[in-house]
Amino acid sequence: MGSLPPFSSDVINPHSPPNTKTTTTTTTTQFSSASSCIDETTLLNLFKSQQSHLNFFFQHLDLPQTLAFTRTLLLQSSAGATIFFSGVGKSGFVAHKISQTLVSLGIRSGFLSPLDALHGDIGALSKTDVLVLFSKSGTTEELLRLVPCAKAKGAFLISVTSVDGNALASLCDMNVHLPVERELCPFDLAPVTSTAIQMVFGDTVAIALMGAKSLTKEQYAANHPAGRIGKSLIFKVKDVMKKEDELPVCKEGDLIMEQLVELTSKGCGCLLVIDAEHRLIGTFTDGDLRRTLKASGEAIFKLTVGEVCNRHPRTIGPDAMAVDAMQKMEAPPSPVQFLPVINDQNQVIGIVTLHGLVSAGL
To answer: Which residue range or ranges hold the CBS domain (predicted)?
Structure first.
């Protein structure tokens, strides 16, 4: 299947009016030829048509208008306002999603259902808040009924529409026009291109707000504690390590065969060899046991752990990030399944295992 060309200004001339008739004919023909099946060429042409429609949006978007919209959200949210979004149908799903994106960035936001708002939910709206209303046509009846009620609450109203001179825009304090050449639908009816544009617009503005507020990775992670991103930026080694009675420890003078229970019962696949002050001397793994048994045979019954342990194991500190521990385990020359956790005095205070990191969601 052929690849899509990159977005470029060559797809549509921004200084020429859109040829809606030609585009409609092309899209309809694509659907007609695929009445009985869908082949690669048909699908590729549809993607190219959608790309062309998106290019039209990028080339005709009013940037000063969009900047005014973004700055308004930034100013109001910085002053403690909640940014509410509303819409009906597919636009409602988009509005809900953009609201959730802002919340994940630490910006106070919420979705206000136009139907539920008229039955009590408008109580969440105050005169310090902003209400952003998404509607392609700007004639959505539910939103038009909501506007006077929201105005009575004193909220600042912004419409985001795609049809010039619409009723919703005339009633709001600010309007943002999202240029839509046509829907990808052969009948120019199903809202697929317009909702894609709404989503691109809203999410891009959200990231602009994220940059303006100088949100750090740590702050972002704090809003996603259960996700892999959050865990990788929040969890430290001390949060996921085994410690105290869970540690498989022994002394270097202990006989190997006397430490088999300790080696196998703690679920770490190793022994941490320590001295009288709990300082780390080395490690002895179940792999070391197999190699020693193969090389020494019956002589293994007389060998001590200290004679065959690895005295230069990889280690990590308790305040290191858990994700760094995983990277250290996987580093050359060969991966390991665990890392002893030591303090500044080289004393063993824990052990972190690859299984433990995976179980923690990392």
So the answer is: 241-300, 309-362
What b/e string do you get for 204-227 counting C-beta neighbours within 10 Å, with b at 16 or more? ebbebbbeeeebeeeebbeeeeee
| 75 token code pair | 């100013």
CA distances (Å), origin 323, targets 232, 313, 326, 361: 5, 19, 5, 10
Q: How buried is residue 231: exposed, middle or buried, by Cβ count under 10 Å (0-12/13-18/19+)?
A: buried
How confident is the model at residue 18, as a pLDDT? 47
**pLDDT tens for each residue of 295-330:** 998 899 999 999 999 999 999 999 998 888 988 999
- The whole-angstrom separation of Cα 166 and Cα 161 is 8
Strands across the sheet with 83-87, in order?
Answer: 109-111, 83-87, 130-134, 156-161, 174-177
Which is nearest to 34 in space by CA: 25, 23, 43? 43
How confident is the model over 87-121, as pLDDT tens digits? 999 999 999 999 999 998 889 999 999 999 999 99
**Structural domains of the chain, with CATH:** 51-215 (3.40.50.10490), 237-360 (3.10.580.10)
